[in-house]
Design brief:
The structure is a single chain. The protein has about 400 residues and is of the alpha/beta class. The protein folds into two domains: about 30-160 and about 300-365, Response regulator (Rossmann fold); about 165-290 and about 375-405, Response regulator (Rossmann fold). It has 14 helices and 16 strands. It has helices at about 5-25, 50-55, 55-70, 95-105, 120-125, 125-135, 170-175, 190-205, 225-235, 250-260, 275-280, 300-310, 320-340, 345-350, and strands at about 35-45, 75, 80, 85-90, 115, 135-140, 155, 185-190, 210-220, 240-245, 265-270, 285-290, 355, 360-365, 375-380, 385-390. The strands form four sheets. The protein has a seven-stranded mixed sheet with strand order 9-8-10-11-12-15-16, sandwiched between helices. It has a five-stranded parallel sheet with strand order 4-1-5-6-7, sandwiched between helices. Strands 2-3 form a two-stranded antiparallel ribbon. Strand 8, helix 8 (about 190-205) and strand 9 (about 210-220) form a beta-alpha-beta unit. The longest helix has 18 residues, at about 5-25. The protein is elongated, with a radius of gyration of 24 Å. Residues about 1-25 have low confidence and may be disordered.
Length: about 400
């Protein structure tokens, strides 16, 4: 009988060790006043989501540095602040990889708390890991409500904005402008999130007395918008509301300019640096949403501005940044409210809590789902200006938009 090789024995042993590690219950440093507080997270540094989060490792490291410059996180039971530390892995934008890494952080790294992940495709399979190990998790950009409808007890989320509040401030704004718009036309990217936005805000438009003149849906692969734009032109709506991710709508915006669409305003639900770079001056005068922008002062805004500046991260290029940083701020506030490094106490502190963010208060319902909104911005002379609400505006709204007003 052939004896097993050393390599085979070692492989079996390592595999057994891996199983044992995965089976080991997570051990939090309950009540510690000497160890750093450890947040475990994954970032999509590679894979399809990497363009959205490419600089977030540096940003996360700088965030910890800035918090630790002040001593760290205040823990009342210790009578002092404790330093903050992150364990960071690349989830490669792959759900199965993310699940394995959160298991590793629970059983091998023994992190105290989870922050992240982002994106609904990862936010579906990952949260059960938090419940399994009873580790509070504040996810970042996971906006799908069904993720929170599963009865899980250890998850919260800080997506900015959520669909029911996405264009809340924009629709408030258009009730106060002069001349007041009377009609609106919806153009929607065939995507679940964007269709959800249109479904919500087309109803709101009607409730406000706006006449909905059309609702066209387009495929993300569509490049020739001639037929669709002909319908938009014929309708002569006061507002053209584009509910779309930035890259999908690039040819739409370009062809609307070429075919001389006119309106009081062309509103795009996702104004981004990527869209601006691809369409150039065609974006001038358009309005849209951003979750927050430097210059809007609120809780932790100085910290966030410093972290973003040091990390070379801008809100216009990385529009999901506030959701990610607010997940960190939420967990810190949970610990401070609990007054102790204790998972169960932090869980209790975050249940139906209201926390502070640079964009204002964030309240969670019993599922851990947030009520975050966005600010209305307008492209003015190639730059982003926050135009609504007036009390935080960094620029004055140009209404009707001069660049969309030449006669047909």
């Amino acid at each position: 009988m052939k004896k097993p090789s050393f390599q085979r024995i070692a492989g079996v042993a390592l595999a057994a060790l891996g199983v044992a590690l995965m089976a080991t219950p997570a051990s939090a440093k309950i009540g510690s006043c000497s160890d750093p507080i450890v947040f475990g997270t994954t970032l999509s540094e590679t894979g399809p989501f990497s363009t959205l989060a490419g600089r977030w490792r540096k940003m996360t490291e700088v965030f910890a540095e800035e918090v630790n410059k002040t001593g760290g996180v205040m823990v009342k039971s210790c009578g002092k602040k404790l330093p903050l530390k992150f364990v960071i892995y690349d989830d490669q934008s792959v759900p199965a990889t993310a699940v394995a890494l959160y298991e590793k952080m629970a059983t091998v790294d023994n992190v105290d708390f989870f922050v992240g992940p982002d994106w609904s495709s990862l936010g579906g399979p990952v949260p059960p890991v938090a419940d399994k190990h009873k580790i509070p998790m504040v996810m970042a950009n996971v906006a799908t409500p069904s993720v929170y409808d599963r009865g899980l007890k250890y998850i919260w989320g800080t997506p900015f904005p959520v669909v029911p509040r996405w264009s809340e401030r924009y629709f408030d704004m258009i009730t106060k402008v002069s001349p007041k718009p009377q009609s609106i036309y919806f153009v929607t990217h065939d995507n679940p999130v964007m269709k959800g936005i249109t479904a919500t805000w087309s109803k709101k438009a009607e409730a406000q007395g706006l006449k909905v003149l059309g609702n066209e849906t387009f495929s993300p692969e569509l490049k020739d918008f001639t037929a669709l734009i002909a319908k938009v032109r014929a309708a002569k709506a006061d507002i053209v509301y584009i509910s779309s991710f930035d890259n999908a709508s690039v040819p739409l915006v370009q062809q609307m300019r070429q075919l001389k669409v006119r309106a009081m305003d062309v509103h795009h639900t996702m104004l981004t640096g990527s869209l601006a770079r691809q369409v150039g001056a065609d974006i001038e005068g358009m309005t849209g949403e951003l979750s927050w922008y430097p210059g809007i002062k609120g809780a932790y805004s100085d910290l966030v501005e410093t972290v973003m500046k040091r990390s070379d991260v801008t809100m216009f290029d990385y529009i999901w940044t506030l959701g990610r940083l607010t997940s960190y701020l939420t967990m810190i506030q949970g610990i401070e409210k609990a007054g102790v490094v204790d998972r169960e106490k932090v869980k209790e502190a975050l249940f139906k809590a209201t926390v502070k963010s640079p964009a204002g208060d964030v309240s969670f319902d019993e599922r851990g789902f947030a009520d975050t909104g966005a600010f209305t911005v307008q492209m003015q002379n190639g730059k982003v200006a926050v135009v609504w609400p007036p009390e935080v505006a960094t620029g004055k709204l140009m209404w009707p938009s001069p660049t969309w007003q030449q006669p047909q």
